[in-house]
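#structure-requests
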Amino acid sequence: MSSATDSRIVVTGATGNVGTSLVRLLSEDPKVGSVRGLARRLPDWEAPKTEWSAVDLASDQSDLVKEFEGAHAVVHLAWAFQPTHDPAATWRTNVLGSMKVFDAVATAGVPTLVHASSVGAYSPGPKDHAVDESWPTHGWPDAAYCREKAYLERALDTFERDHPDVRVVRMRPAFLFKRESASEQRRIFGGRFLPGQLARPDLLPFLPDIPGLRVQALHTDDAAKAYQLALRINVNGAFNLAGEPPVDAELLGEMLGARPVRLPRPAARSAIAAAWGLHLLPASPHLFDAVLRLPLMDCTRARTELGWHPDHTAPEVLEEFLLGLQQGAGASTEPLRGRKVG
Protein backbone atom coordinates (compact mmCIF):
# COMPACT_ATOMS: atom_id res chain seq x y z
CA MET A 1 0.00 0.00 0.00
CA SER A 2 1.25 3.45 -0.80
CA SER A 3 2.39 5.49 2.18
CA ALA A 4 0.56 8.50 0.79
CA THR A 5 -2.33 9.70 2.87
CA ASP A 6 -4.69 9.64 -0.14
CA SER A 7 -4.78 5.83 -0.34
CA ARG A 8 -8.29 4.46 -0.69
CA ILE A 9 -9.26 1.04 0.70
CA VAL A 10 -12.53 -0.76 -0.09
CA VAL A 11 -13.76 -3.44 2.32
CA THR A 12 -16.57 -5.84 1.43
CA GLY A 13 -18.50 -7.37 4.33
CA ALA A 14 -17.47 -4.33 6.32
CA THR A 15 -20.18 -4.62 9.00
CA GLY A 16 -19.41 -8.20 10.09
CA ASN A 17 -17.10 -9.75 12.66
CA VAL A 18 -13.81 -9.06 10.86
CA GLY A 19 -15.07 -6.07 8.88
CA THR A 20 -15.87 -3.93 11.91
CA SER A 21 -12.44 -4.58 13.43
CA LEU A 22 -10.62 -3.86 10.17
CA VAL A 23 -12.60 -0.71 9.33
CA ARG A 24 -11.87 0.61 12.81
CA LEU A 25 -8.13 0.00 12.34
CA LEU A 26 -8.00 1.50 8.85
CA SER A 27 -10.05 4.55 9.83
CA GLU A 28 -7.44 5.32 12.52
CA ASP A 29 -4.45 4.64 10.23
CA PRO A 30 -2.72 7.88 9.14
CA LYS A 31 -1.47 6.09 6.00
CA VAL A 32 -5.06 5.53 4.83
CA GLY A 33 -6.83 8.43 3.16
CA SER A 34 -10.33 6.95 2.99
CA VAL A 35 -12.25 3.74 3.53
CA ARG A 36 -15.35 2.60 1.70
CA GLY A 37 -17.30 -0.09 3.49
CA LEU A 38 -19.62 -2.29 1.44
CA ALA A 39 -22.43 -4.13 3.20
CA ARG A 40 -25.85 -5.52 2.33
CA ARG A 41 -27.43 -3.29 4.99
CA LEU A 42 -26.05 0.14 5.86
CA PRO A 43 -25.00 0.45 9.53
CA ASP A 44 -25.81 3.05 12.17
CA TRP A 45 -22.11 3.02 13.04
CA GLU A 46 -19.87 5.85 11.89
CA ALA A 47 -16.07 5.68 11.62
CA PRO A 48 -13.58 8.42 10.65
CA LYS A 49 -12.70 8.68 6.95
CA THR A 50 -15.29 5.98 6.16
CA GLU A 51 -18.18 6.02 3.69
CA TRP A 52 -20.74 3.25 3.22
CA SER A 53 -22.39 1.67 0.21
CA ALA A 54 -25.25 -0.84 0.17
CA VAL A 55 -24.08 -3.81 -1.93
CA ASP A 56 -25.58 -7.30 -2.16
CA LEU A 57 -23.16 -9.72 -3.81
CA ALA A 58 -25.98 -12.15 -4.54
CA SER A 59 -27.68 -9.50 -6.70
CA ASP A 60 -26.74 -8.51 -10.24
CA GLN A 61 -27.76 -4.89 -9.60
CA SER A 62 -24.63 -3.75 -7.72
CA ASP A 63 -21.98 -1.94 -9.76
CA LEU A 64 -18.81 -3.22 -8.11
CA VAL A 65 -16.53 -1.69 -10.73
CA LYS A 66 -17.83 1.75 -9.83
CA GLU A 67 -17.28 1.04 -6.12
CA PHE A 68 -13.71 -0.13 -6.75
CA GLU A 69 -12.56 2.59 -9.18
CA GLY A 70 -9.61 4.54 -7.77
CA ALA A 71 -9.04 2.09 -4.91
CA HIS A 72 -5.51 1.15 -3.90
CA ALA A 73 -6.76 -2.15 -2.47
CA VAL A 74 -9.90 -4.24 -2.03
CA VAL A 75 -10.25 -6.42 1.07
CA HIS A 76 -12.88 -9.06 0.40
CA LEU A 77 -14.51 -10.26 3.63
CA ALA A 78 -18.18 -10.69 2.68
CA TRP A 79 -19.54 -14.15 3.50
CA ALA A 80 -22.90 -15.78 4.23
CA PHE A 81 -22.94 -18.71 6.68
CA GLN A 82 -26.67 -19.30 6.42
CA PRO A 83 -28.93 -20.90 5.31
CA THR A 84 -27.12 -24.21 5.80
CA HIS A 85 -30.18 -26.06 4.50
CA ASP A 86 -29.91 -24.23 1.17
CA PRO A 87 -26.34 -24.57 -0.13
CA ALA A 88 -27.36 -23.06 -3.47
CA ALA A 89 -28.10 -19.78 -1.67
CA THR A 90 -24.73 -19.62 0.08
CA TRP A 91 -22.98 -20.63 -3.14
CA ARG A 92 -24.67 -17.73 -4.92
CA THR A 93 -23.36 -15.21 -2.38
CA ASN A 94 -20.05 -16.72 -1.39
CA VAL A 95 -18.71 -18.21 -4.61
CA LEU A 96 -20.49 -16.39 -7.43
CA GLY A 97 -20.43 -13.14 -5.44
CA SER A 98 -16.69 -13.50 -4.76
CA MET A 99 -15.97 -14.14 -8.42
CA LYS A 100 -17.83 -10.90 -9.23
CA VAL A 101 -15.52 -9.15 -6.77
CA PHE A 102 -12.41 -10.66 -8.40
CA ASP A 103 -13.60 -9.66 -11.89
CA ALA A 104 -14.41 -6.12 -10.73
CA VAL A 105 -10.97 -5.76 -9.13
CA ALA A 106 -9.36 -6.58 -12.47
CA THR A 107 -11.71 -4.36 -14.50
CA ALA A 108 -11.28 -1.39 -12.16
CA GLY A 109 -7.49 -1.76 -12.20
CA VAL A 110 -7.14 -2.22 -8.43
CA PRO A 111 -3.50 -3.18 -7.73
CA THR A 112 -4.10 -5.22 -4.53
CA LEU A 113 -6.68 -7.83 -3.56
CA VAL A 114 -6.73 -9.27 -0.03
CA HIS A 115 -9.10 -12.22 0.24
CA ALA A 116 -10.51 -13.82 3.39
CA SER A 117 -9.91 -17.51 3.01
CA SER A 118 -9.98 -19.76 6.09
CA VAL A 119 -8.57 -22.76 7.90
CA GLY A 120 -11.73 -24.36 6.49
CA ALA A 121 -10.14 -24.34 3.03
CA TYR A 122 -7.52 -26.87 4.14
CA SER A 123 -7.76 -30.58 3.41
CA PRO A 124 -7.93 -32.88 6.46
CA GLY A 125 -4.69 -32.75 8.40
CA PRO A 126 -2.89 -33.51 11.65
CA LYS A 127 -3.94 -32.53 15.16
CA ASP A 128 -0.59 -33.28 16.79
CA HIS A 129 1.56 -30.83 14.81
CA ALA A 130 1.02 -27.71 12.71
CA VAL A 131 1.14 -27.39 8.92
CA ASP A 132 2.26 -24.41 6.86
CA GLU A 133 0.57 -22.69 3.90
CA SER A 134 1.70 -25.38 1.45
CA TRP A 135 -0.82 -27.87 2.90
CA PRO A 136 -3.46 -28.78 0.25
CA THR A 137 -6.58 -26.60 0.15
CA HIS A 138 -9.29 -28.96 -1.05
CA GLY A 139 -11.45 -28.55 2.05
CA TRP A 140 -13.89 -31.14 3.38
CA PRO A 141 -16.20 -31.56 0.37
CA ASP A 142 -19.31 -32.53 2.35
CA ALA A 143 -19.42 -29.18 4.20
CA ALA A 144 -20.66 -26.20 2.18
CA TYR A 145 -18.44 -23.74 4.05
CA CYS A 146 -15.25 -25.70 3.32
CA ARG A 147 -16.33 -26.53 -0.22
CA GLU A 148 -16.87 -22.86 -1.01
CA LYS A 149 -13.62 -21.69 0.62
CA ALA A 150 -11.65 -24.35 -1.29
CA TYR A 151 -13.34 -23.51 -4.60
CA LEU A 152 -12.35 -19.86 -4.21
CA GLU A 153 -8.74 -20.90 -3.64
CA ARG A 154 -8.84 -22.49 -7.11
CA ALA A 155 -10.59 -19.42 -8.54
CA LEU A 156 -7.78 -17.23 -7.16
CA ASP A 157 -5.19 -19.54 -8.72
CA THR A 158 -6.76 -18.77 -12.10
CA PHE A 159 -7.13 -15.07 -11.27
CA GLU A 160 -3.44 -14.76 -10.41
CA ARG A 161 -2.45 -16.51 -13.63
CA ASP A 162 -4.65 -14.22 -15.74
CA HIS A 163 -3.86 -10.99 -13.82
CA PRO A 164 -0.19 -11.07 -12.77
CA ASP A 165 -0.28 -7.29 -12.26
CA VAL A 166 -2.61 -7.68 -9.25
CA ARG A 167 -1.02 -8.46 -5.89
CA VAL A 168 -3.14 -11.17 -4.27
CA VAL A 169 -3.01 -12.04 -0.55
CA ARG A 170 -5.00 -14.89 0.97
CA MET A 171 -5.63 -14.83 4.71
CA ARG A 172 -6.37 -18.20 6.33
CA PRO A 173 -7.44 -17.46 9.90
CA ALA A 174 -8.55 -19.90 12.59
CA PHE A 175 -11.93 -19.50 14.31
CA LEU A 176 -12.39 -15.78 15.03
CA PHE A 177 -14.03 -14.42 18.17
CA LYS A 178 -14.48 -11.13 19.97
CA ARG A 179 -16.96 -9.86 22.53
CA GLU A 180 -19.00 -7.93 19.96
CA SER A 181 -19.46 -11.00 17.75
CA ALA A 182 -21.01 -13.12 20.49
CA SER A 183 -24.68 -12.60 19.64
CA GLU A 184 -24.11 -13.01 15.90
CA GLN A 185 -22.18 -16.25 16.33
CA ARG A 186 -24.75 -17.60 18.79
CA ARG A 187 -27.43 -17.05 16.15
CA ILE A 188 -25.31 -18.51 13.32
CA PHE A 189 -24.19 -21.68 15.08
CA GLY A 190 -26.53 -22.19 18.05
CA GLY A 191 -29.78 -20.67 16.84
CA ARG A 192 -31.79 -17.55 17.59
CA PHE A 193 -33.45 -19.01 20.66
CA LEU A 194 -30.43 -20.49 22.43
CA PRO A 195 -29.99 -18.30 25.54
CA GLY A 196 -26.50 -16.87 25.75
CA GLN A 197 -26.92 -16.78 29.52
CA LEU A 198 -26.37 -20.55 29.51
CA ALA A 199 -22.67 -19.97 28.76
CA ARG A 200 -21.79 -20.06 32.46
CA PRO A 201 -19.21 -22.34 34.08
CA ASP A 202 -21.53 -23.22 36.97
CA LEU A 203 -24.04 -24.69 34.49
CA LEU A 204 -21.45 -27.00 32.92
CA PRO A 205 -20.71 -29.88 35.28
CA PHE A 206 -18.86 -31.68 32.48
CA LEU A 207 -17.62 -31.06 28.93
CA PRO A 208 -17.98 -33.49 26.04
CA ASP A 209 -14.52 -34.67 25.00
CA ILE A 210 -14.91 -35.71 21.35
CA PRO A 211 -11.97 -37.37 19.57
CA GLY A 212 -10.49 -34.96 17.02
CA LEU A 213 -12.07 -31.85 18.52
CA ARG A 214 -8.86 -29.82 18.76
CA VAL A 215 -8.90 -26.45 16.99
CA GLN A 216 -7.31 -22.99 17.04
CA ALA A 217 -8.91 -19.69 18.00
CA LEU A 218 -7.92 -16.08 17.32
CA HIS A 219 -9.17 -12.70 18.45
CA THR A 220 -10.80 -10.87 15.57
CA ASP A 221 -8.81 -7.71 16.29
CA ASP A 222 -5.59 -9.71 15.92
CA ALA A 223 -6.77 -10.98 12.54
CA ALA A 224 -7.58 -7.40 11.50
CA LYS A 225 -4.01 -6.37 12.39
CA ALA A 226 -2.71 -9.00 9.96
CA TYR A 227 -4.96 -7.64 7.20
CA GLN A 228 -3.69 -4.12 7.90
CA LEU A 229 -0.08 -5.30 7.72
CA ALA A 230 -0.75 -7.11 4.44
CA LEU A 231 -1.98 -3.82 3.00
CA ARG A 232 1.13 -1.97 4.17
CA ILE A 233 3.77 -4.54 3.18
CA ASN A 234 4.44 -5.73 -0.35
CA VAL A 235 3.70 -9.43 0.17
CA ASN A 236 1.55 -11.93 -1.67
CA GLY A 237 0.31 -15.48 -1.23
CA ALA A 238 -1.27 -17.17 1.77
CA PHE A 239 -0.86 -16.51 5.49
CA ASN A 240 -2.01 -18.71 8.37
CA LEU A 241 -3.38 -16.81 11.36
CA ALA A 242 -4.03 -18.46 14.73
CA GLY A 243 -3.62 -17.92 18.45
CA GLU A 244 -2.00 -20.24 20.95
CA PRO A 245 -2.43 -22.73 22.47
CA PRO A 246 -4.76 -25.06 20.53
CA VAL A 247 -8.19 -25.46 22.11
CA ASP A 248 -9.42 -28.88 23.24
CA ALA A 249 -11.60 -30.33 25.99
CA GLU A 250 -8.73 -30.33 28.48
CA LEU A 251 -8.05 -26.61 28.01
CA LEU A 252 -11.76 -25.74 28.17
CA GLY A 253 -12.17 -27.88 31.26
CA GLU A 254 -9.38 -26.00 33.02
CA MET A 255 -10.89 -22.65 31.99
CA LEU A 256 -14.42 -23.49 33.07
CA GLY A 257 -13.74 -25.79 35.98
CA ALA A 258 -15.62 -28.61 34.24
CA ARG A 259 -14.61 -32.25 33.90
CA PRO A 260 -14.06 -33.56 30.34
CA VAL A 261 -16.12 -36.69 29.63
CA ARG A 262 -15.32 -38.81 26.59
CA LEU A 263 -18.12 -38.78 24.03
CA PRO A 264 -17.84 -40.95 20.90
CA ARG A 265 -17.92 -39.13 17.57
CA PRO A 266 -20.99 -41.05 16.26
CA ALA A 267 -23.06 -40.11 19.31
CA ALA A 268 -22.16 -36.42 19.05
CA ARG A 269 -22.75 -36.35 15.31
CA SER A 270 -26.11 -38.11 15.60
CA ALA A 271 -27.32 -35.53 18.10
CA ILE A 272 -26.19 -32.63 15.90
CA ALA A 273 -27.69 -34.23 12.78
CA ALA A 274 -31.03 -34.74 14.50
CA ALA A 275 -31.18 -31.14 15.74
CA TRP A 276 -30.12 -29.80 12.35
CA GLY A 277 -32.64 -31.97 10.52
CA LEU A 278 -35.41 -30.60 12.75
CA HIS A 279 -34.19 -27.02 12.08
CA LEU A 280 -33.41 -26.62 15.79
CA LEU A 281 -29.69 -26.09 15.19
CA PRO A 282 -28.26 -23.96 12.34
CA ALA A 283 -24.80 -25.59 12.42
CA SER A 284 -24.82 -28.67 10.18
CA PRO A 285 -23.37 -32.11 10.97
CA HIS A 286 -21.26 -31.70 7.82
CA LEU A 287 -19.49 -28.73 9.38
CA PHE A 288 -18.98 -30.79 12.54
CA ASP A 289 -17.32 -33.48 10.41
CA ALA A 290 -15.03 -30.85 8.88
CA VAL A 291 -14.00 -29.33 12.22
CA LEU A 292 -12.88 -32.74 13.48
CA ARG A 293 -10.54 -32.98 10.48
CA LEU A 294 -9.09 -29.45 10.28
CA PRO A 295 -5.31 -29.31 10.63
CA LEU A 296 -3.51 -27.14 13.13
CA MET A 297 -1.81 -24.20 11.40
CA ASP A 298 1.79 -22.99 11.62
CA CYS A 299 1.87 -19.16 11.58
CA THR A 300 5.62 -18.71 11.06
CA ARG A 301 5.18 -16.93 7.72
CA ALA A 302 2.87 -14.27 9.20
CA ARG A 303 5.33 -13.67 12.02
CA THR A 304 8.42 -13.41 9.83
CA GLU A 305 7.09 -11.65 6.71
CA LEU A 306 4.35 -9.47 8.22
CA GLY A 307 5.86 -9.00 11.65
CA TRP A 308 2.50 -10.14 13.04
CA HIS A 309 2.00 -11.37 16.60
CA PRO A 310 -1.41 -11.83 18.22
CA ASP A 311 -2.02 -9.79 21.36
CA HIS A 312 -4.46 -12.33 22.83
CA THR A 313 -3.99 -15.95 23.83
CA ALA A 314 -6.67 -18.48 22.93
CA PRO A 315 -7.98 -18.70 26.54
CA GLU A 316 -8.24 -14.90 26.69
CA VAL A 317 -10.19 -14.91 23.41
CA LEU A 318 -12.63 -17.53 24.65
CA GLU A 319 -13.11 -15.87 28.03
CA GLU A 320 -13.99 -12.58 26.32
CA PHE A 321 -16.35 -14.35 23.93
CA LEU A 322 -18.13 -16.32 26.68
CA LEU A 323 -18.65 -13.12 28.65
CA GLY A 324 -20.12 -11.56 25.52
CA LEU A 325 -22.52 -14.51 25.18
CA GLN A 326 -23.72 -14.09 28.75
CA GLN A 327 -24.26 -10.35 28.25
CA GLY A 328 -25.85 -10.55 24.80
CA ALA A 329 -23.01 -8.36 23.48
CA GLY A 330 -23.02 -6.92 19.99
CA ALA A 331 -22.32 -3.80 17.95
CA SER A 332 -24.30 -1.20 16.00
CA THR A 333 -24.34 -3.07 12.69
CA GLU A 334 -27.09 -5.40 11.53
CA PRO A 335 -25.00 -8.61 11.56
CA LEU A 336 -23.62 -7.88 15.03
CA ARG A 337 -26.81 -6.74 16.75
CA GLY A 338 -26.65 -7.68 20.44
CA ARG A 339 -29.47 -9.81 21.81
CA LYS A 340 -29.61 -12.23 24.71
CA VAL A 341 -32.20 -14.44 23.04
CA GLY A 342 -34.67 -14.20 20.14
